[in-house]
Sequence to fold (126 residues):
Amino acid sequence: MIDRARRQIGLFTALLLTVSTVIIGLIIYTMTIDKKKSIATLKLIGAPDRTIVGLIVQQALAMGVISFLVGAALINAGQNFFPRRVVLEPTDAAILFGVVLVVCLLASALGVRTALKIDPASALAG
Fold:
């Protein structure tokens, strides 16, 4: 009985991580498309691809860290209002934070790929 519940929670967690990765990836992709002209301008003035990749990855990691902090604050604020008490241990929180960082790095890959394909000459187009 316990093993079945553990597997169900594991499947639910995997689905949530997959959906979160897709959502963060789409947000980063959309933000990259919105900044297409700025990225092209950076490329035109000679900024290395490493700098552009760093900006997109930083944006994704900032989203993940802020989301984690807000989520942790909500968990701590509302833990006494539920019928069953679920405790988030510090080691579990640290592992979850690591997973959030990995998910954000994976999700930023689509935005990075898009940014690297942008032609610098498009900055000059009206």
Observations:
- The chain has a mean pLDDT of 88.
- The chain is about 80% helix and 0% strand.
- The CA atoms of residues 37 and 125 lie 9 Å apart.
- The first helix runs from residue 2 to 34.
